[in-house]
Specification:
The protein is an alpha/beta fold. It is built from 11 helices and 4 strands; from the N terminus they run βααβαβαβααααααα. Strand 3, helix 4 and strand 4 form a beta-alpha-beta unit.
Length: 281
């Protein structure tokens, strides 16, 4: 398994979630053992030039926070891109660390059908309109080298166009959109062949009062003998013990009972997140 994330240049530099997940990338129990980040860098993000959008020279500078190698590659050179991607994959497999591939390219048309980039980026788009598209540039090179013939190139293009046209024609035949066919389920045997749940009734999940009392008593005790416990914690444990005795629960004790009952069934429970070791949440 290899984890690959595709980013836009503006999102990579500007969205906090990128920085946050970089910080998670090497934490015990959270690591993916290295993710390959591919940044499709059209050099203007949505419509904003870099000097108005970020304070660092490159959108990928945020990856320096984990010392990830960053490869800037000219996306108009497909062979250079392939080479860099191979190096990135090898790095990730060897060191199990994140790596970034910055595809320095351009966007030929607007951000969407309604967007006219000439309004906000006239100088850049004058240059882009003169730019030979990468497919033509690379095809001309391969034909000049004798690697492929013009006929072979045209056949490949026609083959690809045919795949797209046939898919477009088939899409018109679909009168009903079956959303459920697109949703997969992590539970084999949960749905029948039509995608409907096999049963809408839940198995009983209740447990005996005796077991709840047992979990409540364990949750309000100190597991180690002669262990000097902070007086504030003693008060919490004592209150928990009283609640169990009086057949009352608060949120924290209810959670304890839920986790405890799952553990009693031999199912591993892992708590993670803010302050879990303090037991405040």
């Amino acid at each position: 398994v290899m984890s690959i994330l595709l980013h836009g240049d503006a999102a990579f530099a500007g969205q906090g979630v990128v920085y946050e997940t970089f910080h998670l990338s090497d934490l015990p129990s959270y690591t993916t053992n290295g993710t390959i980040h591919v940044v499709v860098n059209n050099q203007i993000g949505f419509t904003t030039d870099p000097r108005m959008a970020r304070s660092s020279p490159y959108p990928t500078d945020v990856a320096r926070v984990v010392n990830a190698p960053i490869f800037h590659v000219n996306a108009d050179d497909p062979e250079a891109v392939m080479y860099v991607c191979s190096v990135a994959a090898e790095w990730r497999n060897t060191f199990n660390k994140d790596v970034v591939v910055d595809l320095v390219c351009y966007r030929r048309r607007g951000h969407n059908e309604m967007d006219e980039p000439m309004f906000t980026q006239p100088l850049m788009y004058k240059q882009i309109h003169k730019q030979v598209p990468v497919l033509k540039k690379y095809a001309d090179k391969l034909i000049a080298d004798g690697t492929v013939t013009l006929q072979e190139f045209e056949e490949e293009i026609a083959k690809y166009d045919r795949i797209c046209e046939e898919a477009y024609t088939r899409s018109k035949d679909n009168k009903i959109l079956h959303i459920k066919h697109w949703l997969d389920s992590p539970w084999p045997g949960f749905f029948n062949a039509d995608g409907e749940p096999k049963s809408l009734s839940c198995p009983p999940t209740g447990i005996s009062e005796e077991l709840l009392t047992h979990i409540g008593n364990v949750a309000s005790s100190v597991p180690v003998e002669d262990f000097k416990i902070h007086s504030g914690l003693s008060r919490i444990l004592k209150a928990r013990s009283e609640m169990t005795k009086n057949r009352l629960v608060d949120w924290a004790l209810a959670e304890y009972m839920a986790f405890g009952s799952v553990l009693k069934e031999g199912i591993h429970v892992r708590l993670s997140g803010q302050d879990v070791e303090r037991g405040t949440f």
